[in-house]
Design a protein that fits this description.
about 140 residues, alpha/beta, Pectate Lyase C-like, 8 strands, about 20% strand, hydrolase, Pectinesterase_cat, aspartyl esterase, cell wall
Length: about 140
Amino acid sequence: MDGQQNTVTAQGRQDKRETTGIVIQNCRIVPEQALFPTRFKTKSYLGRPWKTYSRAVIMESELGDFIQPAGWLEWSGNFALDTLYFAEYGNRGPGAVTNGRVRWKGFHVIRNRNEALQFTAGPFLSGDQWLRNTGVPYFTGLKQ
């Protein structure tokens, strides 16, 4: 639709002390086969802020060529651009090139493995304490 955009995330952390956020790890952010021919008709982004302290991390994932070079989208002017935390680490694919990304205070390209580890299922969700009992397959660390 004209004038519309797609965003993969719109996280709503309202207080910087909240331990919430969206982490997408080891995923494929690519168009469905039937939509592939029209993938550029609507601009697509990794996310946009929803609340003041929005937090989203995309890591070790494949990003398709339809992701805009800026990567991330403003929601309402400069709302939350200094207080959000958006980050990328170790992604691959044509949409993973970060040198054209937004230049916001709250956007980060993580280059340190230890920094990225804090957003994996083990530390971020305390996954080792409860996920095993659910029977849901998970991985606590980094893939790469």
